[in-house]
Specification:
It comes from Dovyalis caffra. The chain is mainly α. Helices cover 55% and strands 7% of the residues. The longest helix has 32 residues.
Length: 110
Amino acid sequence: MTAVRLFLGLTVLLFCLAEVSSDLKMDTEMLHAGQLLVRGGNRRLMQDIDCGGLCKQRCSLHSRPNVCTRACGTCCVRCKCVPPGTSGNREVCGTCYTDMTTHGNKTKCP
C-alpha cells in the first residue's frame, strides 16, 4: 500500500514539473518571437515597452525634463503606454493616462 502511494505521489509530482517546464518554454518562445509577453498568474498578454526610452523622447523638449521623465515613467508603468510626440496626443493612451492626477488634482501624465 505504501509503494502505491509513493508511486502516485511521484507521478503527480512529475506531471506538475512537466506543466511548469512547458509553460516556461512557451514564455521563452513568445519572448523571442515578438514583443508580447505572458506575465502573472492570470496569463494576460501585455506589451513590454521601453518606458525609459519613450519617456526620454517624450520629455526631451520639456522645460523641466527630469520632473517630466519621472512622471512619464510612473504613467508608463501603470498604463503601459506613452503618447507619441513631445506634447499632446494624450488621448491615444486612453483614460488611464488622461485621468491620472497628482495630490493637487493636476494632470500627472505629460
